[in-house]
Amino acid sequence: MAHPLNRRRLLTAGAATLGALTVGTRVAAADWPASLALPAGWQPEGITIGAGPYAYLGSLADGSLYRADLRTGTGKVISTGPGTPAVGLKLDPRGRLFVAARSFGARVVDARSGETLASYSLATATPSFANDVVLTPRAAWFTESYQPVLYGLPLGRGGELPAAEDVVRLPLTGDWVQSADGAINANGIARTPDGSALLVVQAGVGLLHRVDPATGITEAVDLGDAAPLTNGDGLLVRGRTLYAVQNRQNAIDVFRLAADGRSGVFQRRITDPAFDVPTTVAAYGGRLYLPNARFTTTPTSETTYSVTVVGA
């Protein structure tokens, strides 16, 4: 459903549906851009959108953070990076950005001032790749792509950030089978519709897992006859709808989930000619925003990058 302030302005024309494949679904408010230009050489990966019409994106190049106005497409760097990557990120209601930083752990940044509020070393084994993050009322959970573990930052009363020694390292057990060294395992992460568990996509094998955050026990989610989520990347759950980005396929697969996240039914696949290895997805109103990481293009300081907008 469109955001109440934008419902009357939303355009729904321009989509062509062929069976379960939705093609050319770019949708924007009448005077909102259908794509967002990013600074040259930015190398985006993660995106997050809060209650206001602003997207926040991190840079793989140096960890800088950028805020884009969804209404105009204009933006600015709000935090100059520490020289380490910014991968997945999420904005909390207190205006804090939780940023995954590959082997460098995680940091929390004030989205208003750009100040780094805290930094955390997450891994206890190598190699390490803190990849994506999801926020729950009690914790920020980060995926680890090279080890069978999730990292948690437990939040105190009023969202208080934890001390460095309080980082939770949750081994993944149950149905989880870690792939060989060098493969991307845990990637995108989201909450189940009822909030009882976490959903984690295992990119290399294309499986979606339901993870109990209290025990680390995982169950493979039953997605019926849907194709594997190979190269599965960012996940977004809105209500009981799951959007699963598959980066190298230039596609988003859409599922209707059971409330507890144990099963799902394939609805459709969204593609767009403007996709260029999209990695993650965030939503505002009736629109989805996907940064094009362009992993098949050799990055330079002059390489162009953008965010593509499609209808949800």
What does it look like?
- With 312 residues, the protein is mostly beta strands.
- The chain has no helices and 27 strands.
- 46% of the residues are buried.
- Residues 1-19 and 24-28 have low confidence and may be disordered.
Short key terms for the protein model shown above:
5-stranded mixed beta sheet; 312 residues; mainly beta; disordered N terminus; 6-stranded mixed beta sheet; 0% helix
Largest sheet: 6 strands, mixed
Run of helices and strands: EEEEEEEEEEEEEEEEEEEEEEEEEEE
State the distance separating the first and last CA atoms. Answer: 9 Å
**Strand arrangement, largest sheet?**
1-2-24-23-22-21
Structural class: mainly beta
Principal-axes geometry comes out as: globular
Q: How large, in whole angstroms, is the Cα Rg?
A: 18 Å
Helix content: under 10%
Ranges with pLDDT <50 over ≥5 residues? Answer: 1-19, 24-28
Average pLDDT figure: 92
Number of strands: 27
Number of discrete helical segments: 0
Percent of residues in beta strands? 35-45%
Q: Could you outline the blueprint of secondary structure elements for this entry?
A:
Blueprint: E1 16-18, E2 21-23, E3 35-38, E4 44-49, E5 54-59, E6 65-69, E7 75-79, E8 89-91, E9 96-100, E10 106-110, E11 116-120, E12 130-135, E13 139-144, E14 149-154, E15 168-171, E16 173-174, E17 186-191, E18 198-202, E19 207-211, E20 217-220, E21 232-238, E22 241-246, E23 251-257, E24 264-271, E25 282-284, E26 287-291, E27 305-311
